[in-house]
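Lecture 7 notes: from sequence to structure.

We start with a single chain of 167 residues. Read the sequence below before looking at the structure.
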Amino acid sequence: MPIFAKHGDIVDQLDNVNIYFNDPKIKSNEAMVTPCGYRVGVKYQCVEFVKRYYFEHYNHKMPNIWGNARDFYNSKLKDGAFNKERGLLQYKNGSSTRPEKGDLLVYKNGKYGHVAIVSKVSDNSITIMHQNAGRYRPTRMKHSLKYKDGVWTVEKDALLGWLRVKS
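Now the structure, written as tokens:
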């Protein structure tokens, strides 16, 4: 199903945080910066949405403002450890900790990776919302969630894990 949005149009929302359409034909390096000067990323990219979501919804500024989507996950950390670069707890895909609404998912696909936010969790699936998914992909997608032998796994090959605000 084609999207008939223009570059920069609001195409969805999560918790009153806008999701914008990023036209792949328009190449831009324009940074999005909050009124207080916090750099959330390149306009309409996936990283910009998750950083803006965490800033607007949780008032959370990530200590390291740089990096591609795949850089959000630190594979050297143990499951449940604190990721200092992002100021968030980190869980691997295959954790004893179940994903929750608001978690930031990190995917390793492609050169830069991808990030999304969990918008809904049920016993056997999660729904994610993301920006810069492509012209023909929806802003909302569902992944299967499995629990076996004390371990939660999101059935998505490219998923590294999830990050969460420390409560």
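Residues 46-58 form the longest helix (13 residues). Keep this in mind for problem set 3.
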